[in-house]
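REQUEST ID: PR-0412
SUBMITTED BY: lab tech R.K.
PRIORITY: routine
TASK: structure prediction, single protein chain
INPUT:
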Amino acid sequence: MLDDHSKYLLSEYKERLNIYKKVKEIVVKELYGIISELKMMVNSVEARIKTEKSLSGKLELKGYKYKKIEDITDLVGARVVTFYSDEVDKIAALVEKKFIIDWDNSIDKRKMYDVNQFGYMSLHFICKIPKELYYDEAMPEINETPFEIQIKTTLQHAWATIHHDTGYKNDIEVPREYLRGLNRLAGILELADEEFKNIRTSLNEYRKKVTAIVKSGKYEDAELNGDTFKAYIETGVYDALNKKIAEIGDIEIVEVSLLRFLTVFKLLGFTTLKDVDDMRKKYQDAAYQFALSSLGGKDIDIISSSTGILALCSVYIIAQGYGEIGIKKMYETLYGERKSNDYSAKRAVEIANKIGLLNKD
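STATUS: complete
OUTPUT:
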């Protein structure tokens, strides 16, 4: 049962719902702006206005704590869920610049809890919107309305959600026979959070190293995988062949992803970038003749940037004696099973025979 003071606060809440909706709108917009500025992908950005039912329950329990409606700091709440733990700090740094932070009521729960309370290890900011960010003379309450921003990782959020689903607000309430299991899981999740961050950092360093190796041309040191092949393609290694093919007419080259050819090279047994580059150097003249014969007589004004590499793979497969079966397998790998694969394979072998490539290494 609400006392008179709590009823007054509830009536204030109802009168200010439009204010809360506007605050929520501004906060969400700014949070997305922060994420965009950081060029970061996050799991989610969520925001909500506390419901009348939820607020009534809160006031019934502890309405005496709040002298005025502004003392209830979570009527508007937002949450950013990141993938990695170090991203929490990056977002927090910009939140601090963007909004007015009430440091007395904000909590860095990551520094307060033991491993068994992993799910509560998040940043909780209590903020206000500064006038220089947004001001409306008709709604000055916007700048006086506090709101909460939580920033946590995906695993922290998952743990908190699961823990909440058990019906216990904190570990003190959990029966002892279940507490050990919950604590063990919390420890595993915290370790996983840290390891995901470490793996991401290591992969970033590895990719920088790969880029340097590829730029240096030391292809024998580069294992053929998604990262090395992507870096290799980005050097524009197939551009010259495509441009030469396009010169047979007023043909435009449309850029498409060449990453799917990695699977083809793997099927052909290539293990390093040197294998890929050696093949390119050896067969690029034959690939040009193959493409020239394929396009000859056709009224074509557009080709894709995969034309050159497709011709290279085709002449290599045929030169190795794999014939129609090998070409068909390549097409299935690139485009999936389709009726035209048989025809395309047969046509490729005919063209290879025409330019004198058949059974030639």
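NOTES: DSSP finds 13 helices and eight strands in the chain.
REVIEWED BY: pending
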